[in-house]
Amino acid sequence: MDMKSAITRARRGLREERRLYIVAVTSLAVAFLCLGATLLGVTNLDAAATRWGQSGRITLFLKDDADPQDIAQLRVVLEGLSDVNEVTHVTPEQARASFLEEADVGADLSSLPSEVFPASLEVTLVQGVTRERSESIATRLAQFRAVSDVESYRSWFQKLDHLLWGARMLALGLALLVMFCVVAVIGNTIRLAVARRRQEIEVMKLCGATNGFVRGPFVLEGMFQGFASALLAVLALLAGYLALHESVDSTLAALTGSRVVFLGAWTLLALLAGGAVIGAIGSAVSVRRYLSV
Amino acid sequence: MQGTKVVRPFPFFRAGARASQPQLSKPILVLEDVYKFFRPDQPTLRGVGLSVERGEFLFITGPSGAGKSTLLKLIYRELGVDEGRVLFCGRDIGRLTDKSIPFLRRNLGIVFQDFRIIDHWTVFENVAVALEILSMPQRLIRSRVAEALERVGLAGRGPERTSNLSGGEKQRVAVARAIVPEPALILADEPTGNLDPHLAIDILTLFEEINSTGTTVLFATHDHSLISKRDHRLIAIDEGRVVEAQQGLKHWPGSGIHTLVG
């Protein structure tokens, strides 16, 4: 198949069937937009999880009867660790004050005695410590005599992991759905185009056109539709991101400490290339099915 | 028909292949005892035998439904034979695979009664399509199309939309498309059927001019007034059988087609 001729004929086809193709591209752009928005959600959730995972914190709850010398020794050990950034000793009085300041349970808790709140060492890890490393440090610290319990916030990370897994599955499901939509919509669009251009096809066949020559432009047109739909969705998503990210950023930063990020270059490339490839596949399947050449 | 005529070599059912010298000396088209059935008990063609020499102009006539179009369709492999053989340049085209059929058709120029040109394309695009299929460079396509349009009397009309042309002009575009790849054989299936008598003569003359440059022409028509004006070899089909007349209608007793058949 002569690619130059196929491109010329595909351009002519796109021009002649532009109304049909605009409708198809617009519908598919909506499908790609849903997928892109989900991917954006996954990307941001992933970024937040990574950030939280890397700005780790461990709380060591101390025994009520812990020897001050043991606590001091524990602090020295902690401060000697390269992964530890800061160690703060929180007394029961400080813990009570902090709880009363932050808690809003609708009841008067000021009568609670300080003994209810255990003393603790709040350990802030340096940036970039992995979750696994944080778990390993927590396990080792639990063995100290003065320590009654260690909170490494593993359950929070597990919940976040579950949330991320769910979001990724949703994105995968949506990707499959979008793939099906693209194949179906482009397939039907090409089927209509084949029907409308039956006379051209017949003329080409009578002049000695091979199957590849006849099918080539239709495959290129399907490829273009898939690519254009994905591009349109990416541009709409980018416009939305640029319009909203400043206002969302401050809220998100206050809540999670992270900022909104846009889709990565590889994700964008995969969306655009995926759109083109699926478009070509949908078109090829349709042309093979409805074009008896 | 011989003398100064040019016999062109041609790709032989696949890209790049050429006909050998012995092939060029054989008849371009031979039909051997060909049968075609659309209903088991009523063959449309019954034992048709025919030999066409290179550079010949042949009329095929017969009443509507006699099998003229069927005969042509067997040659360009729109249909396959049920019995017998169709040899084009010595090759049995009934045995061609589906993939080889386009390469057979590249050796044929086909013209129809209903023109089969694309109305929303320009004249140039309608003619150029036959060369684009051959992956010819655009520069060559432009010059070859211009030459073909000049031959059919449409010089300089390339940019015009074919929807604006008259019936006779549309048929000239179809003829230009048929001749532009310089095929070995032109099949014309009632090419004057939609034209008035004056234009019909013009188109017939055009085919004769094409034939005079060495291209073999099979011209199917049921218009006896047209056939009677020329002395070309004539075959008549009626009820599936073929009868030949070497020098047109006027050398046969009577003038009706039924006197030629059976």
Notes on the protein architecture:
The complex is a heterodimer of chains A (293) and B (262). Chain A is α+β, with helices and mostly antiparallel strands. Chain A folds into 2 domains: 3-52 and 158-290, no CATH class; 57-152, Alpha-Beta Plaits (2-Layer Sandwich). Chain A has 9 helices and 4 strands, in the order ααβαβαβαβαααα. Chain A has helices at 3-16, 18-54, 68-80, 92-102, 131-141, 154-196, 198-206, 211-256, 265-290; strands spanning 57-62, 84-90, 120-125, 147-151. In chain A, strands 2-3-1-4 form a 4-stranded antiparallel β-sheet. In chain A, helix 2 (18-54) packs parallel to helix 8 (211-256) and helix 8 runs antiparallel to helix 9 (265-290). The two termini of chain A are 15 Å apart. The model of chain A has no long low-confidence stretch (mean pLDDT 84). Chain B has 262 residues and is of the alpha/beta class. Chain B has 2 domains: 26-107 and 184-262, 3-Layer(aba) Sandwich (Rossmann fold), CATH 3.40.50.300; 117-182, no CATH class. Chain B is 28% helix and 23% strand. Chain B has helices at residues 21-25, 68-75, 101-105, 123-132, 138-151, 167-179, 197-211, 224-227, and strands at 29-39, 42-52, 57-61, 83-88, 91-92, 108-112, 185-189, 216-220, 233-238, 241-245. In chain B, strands 6-7-8-3-9-10 form a 6-stranded mixed β-sheet, sandwiched between helices. In chain B, strand 1 and strand 2 form a beta hairpin. In chain B, helix 4 packs across helix 5 (138-151), helix 4 packs parallel to helix 6 (167-179) and helix 6 packs parallel to helix 7. Chain B is globular, with a radius of gyration of 18 Å. Chain B starts with 20 loop residues before the first helix and ends in a 17-residue tail after the last strand. Chain A binds chain B through residues 2, 5, 9, 16, 199-200, 202-211, 213, and chain B through 76, 99, 102-108, 110, 116-118, 120, 129-130, 132-135, 177, 181.
